[in-house]
Amino acid sequence: MHEPETLIDLNRYPVDKPGGARGAILSQVRADLADDGCAVLKGFLTSTGIETLRAQAEGVADKGFRSFSRTNAYFTKDDPSLPESDPRRRFFDRSNAFIPADNFPKGSALRGLYEYPVLTAFIQECLEEENFHPYADPLADVIVNAAEEGNGFPWHFDTNNFTVTLAIQNADQGGAFDYAANIRAGGENFAEVARVLDGTSDAVRTLHLEPGDLQIFRGRYSLHRVAPLHGKTPRYVAIFSYVEQPDMVATPERCKQLYGRALPIHYERAGVRSDTYID
Q1: 67-80: pLDDT as tens digits
Q2: Cα-atom radius of gyration of the chain, to the nearest Å?
Q3: Is 89 or 244 the better-scoring residue by pLDDT?
Q4: Kind and range of the H or E element at 22?
Q5: Helix 20-36 × helix 117-127 angle, to 10°
Q6: H or E stretch at 143
Q7: For residue 173, how far is the Cα from the chain centroid?
Q8: Strand, coil or helix: what is 56?
Q9: CATH code (residue 35)
Q10: How far apart are CA 131 and CA 77, in angstroms?
Q11: Cα separation of 6 and 10, whole Å?
């Protein structure tokens, strides 16, 4: 069993030690989040951490739910009552694979990081969120996106207000992360969403993440996508999810789309969330 302290580069990122170095990192992350809802800590994991998580992802890669569909940015069905130009009626091919959270049990390296109190406290301070809880969804609290050649994830918004990712392994080519920061922080802003989909928005930024990088991202408010991949090497990215409400889970429809199944808890708690954005 690998302890979280061996997986995180605590010399470079002393998140376990209150003081000046941790405070400086915290200030920079907060500034980046305020600027565009995205912050990256390069080389957050040790080489041991990268290899440990890579091996764990590889070991359960066959458990990933692979799906091929056409989706809009909101994961909703077509609404013929809206104009064809409305972003809710703009559908794109999506091919991807997610390894659900129930493949990462207690005692595993990935879940150990997700449940590491030091890391949780640091992320909460970065986000400056008073209400901050581990995602209660048993399929989605800590997952791995396992994408192969040709796979991509088109423009979309996240269900959760904030998401934390750890890059584990890159594909041979492709897989850039594009995002339009905070374009619906004050409302749906369909006009700007449409410009992003059209390729005419100047709000789009591009990130190239490397294995070991930690990303904190407000994906509920920022439209984003992962570009298609090329080559034989799969791309692995771990996703840690935290929410404002302790009992919140994904909708049954969203679970079926991403994980191929829904559990009784998803039907019992459907609709429990703190905002009215389209999912």
Answers
A1: 888 889 998 999 99
A2: 18
A3: 89
A4: helix 20-36
A5: 50
A6: strand 142-147
A7: 20
A8: helix
A9: 2.60.120.620
A10: 31
A11: 8
Q: Rounded CA gap, 70 and 67, in Å? A: 10
Which tokens go with 122?
Answer: 């640091």
Specify whether the CB–CB gap between 237 and 151 falls below 8 A: no
The residue to which tokens 């992360």 are assigned = 177
The first and second tokens of residue 229, run together, are 């991949």
Q: What is the dihedral of CA 126, 131, 134, 139, to 10 degrees?
A: -120
Of 210, 191, 98, 211, nearest in space to 153 by CA: 98
At 135, list the tokens: 């995602």
- Written as six digits, the tokens of 84 are 């064809």
Q: Say if 275 falls within a structural domain.
A: no
Q: Which amino acid is at 47?
A: S
**How confident is the model over 78-102, as pLDDT tens digits?**
999 999 999 999 999 887 789 999 9
**Cα gap 60→53, rounded to integer Å:** 11
170: in domain:
yes
Q: Which residues is 206 bridged to in the sheet? A: 178
pLDDT in tens, 151-194: 678 999 987 778 899 999 999 999 899 999 999 988 999 999 99
86 located within any domain: yes
CA distance 270 to 252: 7
In angstroms, the CA 271 to CA 136 distance is: 14
Q: Are 142 and 104 in contact (CB under 8 A)?
A: yes
Residue 276 lies in a domain: no
Residue range of the domain that includes 139: 4-268
Q: Tell me which residue has tokens 């929410």.
A: 243
Structure tokens at 133: 């809880």
Query: In which residue are the tokens 């995180």 written?
Result: 8
Q: For 179, which DSSP code?
A: E
Give the model's confidence band at 139: pLDDT under 50 very low, under 70 low, under 90 confident, else very high.
very high
- pLDDT for the residue 151: 65
Task: Quote the number of domains for the chain.
Answer: 1
CB 147 within 8 A of CB 232: no
